[in-house]
Design a protein that fits this description.
Blueprint: E1 2-6, H1 17-26, E2 31-34, E3 53-56, E4 74-77, E5 83-86, E6 89-93, H2 99-103, H3 106-119, E7 125-127, E8 134-137, E9 143-147, E10 157-163, E11 168-174, E12 184-189, H4 195-198, H5 202-212, E13 217-220, E14 238-242, E15 255-257, E16 263-266, E17 269-273, H6 277-281, H7 286-299, E18 303-307, E19 315-318, E20 323-326, H8 330-333, E21 335-341, E22 345-350
């Protein structure tokens, strides 16, 4: 099932809602998730393409008569009653949960996710907005998704799309201007280690899927077995790979980066690799990440993405200065990310693990 996720429409002064709904319909969305701060004047089935809508009410909206007579097919959640079910899908739909990470840390956010999973067994996703920027945190049992804001975001009119069957989430936006740069895609991977020994067909499968997604560039954030480089599988991609200081540069056409030279430049976009930031992130809040992004920008001007790895769980944070991305672990979960520019559409995907053979 495809879920279209949006939040913080407020007054929608730019009249972006119909444009986002068109995106939802064009991509096959069947249910809209609204993470709160909706204006009563937008409680209109036609405005939302006559699709069913689940919407989080903020505290000040609970009990107001404007929210008593909802369009057919609409449901709401309120503080203290945030769990919804659709078929076999269970999720938490709130508004201010994202604020906890703003002042807390990734570790505290994971604690919150685990508590919700404990109290509401089977919950697979937590949706929330409020902070007006996009965030994704992958947990072992429950994922956190903040789709950003339709009104008042850092860039564009934001939304997300979740494919619950494929377990794939895309963060996107409608840009406020029309770039002249031709669209292109970059795949980001990390921590492949000895995946070639554990799963000999993995690189072939990944290359095939990236071709189908029209990816042209690949960035490997590091922790790769340099004796098992998939040069043949990736022969038609431009590949950048981050080497640890204890690794020697292999004899290959790949482009290698180091801790001393961590910036990749592709079509005018600069992406900085900081492999070990994943471990530091556990104790950092969004405020801390903002300060760190300023340090990176001072050291490497014009960098717009910070790519990292080391930890197993995928992570994404849109900040005012940088976009932070951890694609997650290849070896355990076969995760990767695709960045489409200049739209800055970010998709967290994975190569499905083959089922066990019949006995």
């Amino acid at each position: 099932m495809l879920l279209g996720i949006m939040s913080d429409t407020h007054q929608d002064k730019a009249k972006a809602i119909p444009h986002i709904i068109k995106e939802f319909k064009d991509r096959g969305v069947k249910l809209i998730i609204h993470c709160g701060d909706i204006d009563p004047k937008h409680l209109n089935a036609k405005l939302f393409g006559n699709l069913p809508v689940d919407c989080a009410l903020v505290e000040s909206q609970v009990g107001r008569k404007e929210f008593a007579n909802l369009p057919k097919g609409w449901r709401t959640t309120k503080p203290g009653d945030r769990i919804l079910r659709v078929k076999n899908i269970i999720y938490y739909l709130g508004h201010r949960r994202a604020y906890e990470f703003l002042a807390g840390s990734e570790a505290q956010l994971m604690d919150t996710l685990n508590l919700i999973r404990k109290d509401y067994d089977g919950t697979q996703w937590l949706f929330a907005g409020h902070t007006h920027h996009q965030t994704f945190a992958q947990g072992p049992l429950i994922d956190f998704i903040n789709p950003g804001a339709v009104e008042g975001s850092y860039s564009g009119y934001e939304f997300a799309i979740l494919d619950t069957d494929a377990d794939k989430v895309t963060f996107s936006r409608i840009l406020k201007t029309n770039p002249v740069i031709e669209p292109f895609k970059i795949a980001v991977i990390s921590d492949s280690l000895d995946v070639a020994r554990r799963n000999p067909s993995f690189w072939d499968k990944l290359a095939e899927k990236l071709r189908s997604q029209k990816v042209r560039y690949i960035i490997h954030c590091g922790n790769m077995d340099t004796k098992k480089i998939p040069e043949k599988e990736f022969k038609d991609f431009t590949v950048y790979c981050n080497l640890r200081n204890d690794q020697e540069k292999p004899a290959t056409k790949w482009k290698f980066k180091t801790e001393e030279n961590p910036v990749v430049e592709i079509n005018g976009y600069k992406l900085c690799i900081q492999l070990n930031f994943g471990a530091e992130l556990l104790s950092k809040s969004e405020f801390d990440m903002y300060k760190y992004s300023l340090e990176i920008r001072k050291k490497y001007p014009e960098v717009s993405f910070l790519l990292f790895g080391l930890t197993r769980s995928a992570f994404f944070e849109e900040s005012e200065q940088l976009t932070f991305i951890n694609p997650g672990d290849i070896e355990a979960d076969q995760n990767y990310v695709v960045i489409e520019l200049p739209r800055c559409e970010i998709t967290f995907d994975h190569i499905p693990i083959d089922p066990l053979p019949k006995i």
